[in-house]
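seq as requested:
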Amino acid sequence: SKLSEVGMSDRYTVKAIYPHPDYDNDLVVNDLALLRLGEAIPAAIAKPLPWLENSNLPLDGSPIFKSGWGSSNHIDDGPFPDELQTVTVNVLGDPGYNFCGTDSLFDSETRICTGSPVQKGACSGDSGGPNIVSDNGYWYLAGVTSYGMTGPDNLCGNDVDVATRVSSYTDWIVSHVGYQWTWVTGITDTS
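C-alpha cells:
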C-alpha cells in the first residue's frame, strides 16, 4: 500500500473518535482510541481482526508483527516512506515483568515491550498502528503502537518499542463496539 496512491474512494469518514477517558499525554498511559466509521469497510478490502483478550499473552520471545508509515531513520527528519512498512520483532518480557529498556514507568499490565533490531521497529508516525500476534492459528490485535525509546542520536529502532496492551481495555472496547466481531469473523472461542 502506497500513500501516494490513496484516492478519495479509499477514504472512509470518521463519524466519532473515542479516546480512552484516562489517557494522559504527559505519562503516555491509556494510549488508546477507537474510531467509529460512517460506513462499514467492505470485506473485499479489509478482513476483521479480533483483539487479543487473554491478558496472559503474548509471552516473552513471541513474534509480534508491526506495520506503519512512520519514519525509517530519524524521529524528526525521516525519511517517511510512501510504502507501508512492516517488521516482525519479539515481545520482551511476560506479563508481570515490569521492565522495558530505559522506560522507568513501564507497566506490563497495560503495555507490551518489544525488541527492535537496529533501525527496525516503531518510530514517529507509527503511533496507533497494529501489533499483531498469532495464537492457535488465528491472528489477533495484541497491541497498538504507543511510543519507542531512542538514544541521544534520536534514530529510530535503536531501543525498545512500547505498545498499549489491548487486553487490558476489553471492557472499555466492548462498551463501545459490543461483541459483534465474533460473528463477523466466525471466531466464537475467545479464551
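The CA atoms of residues 67 and 86 lie 4 Å apart.
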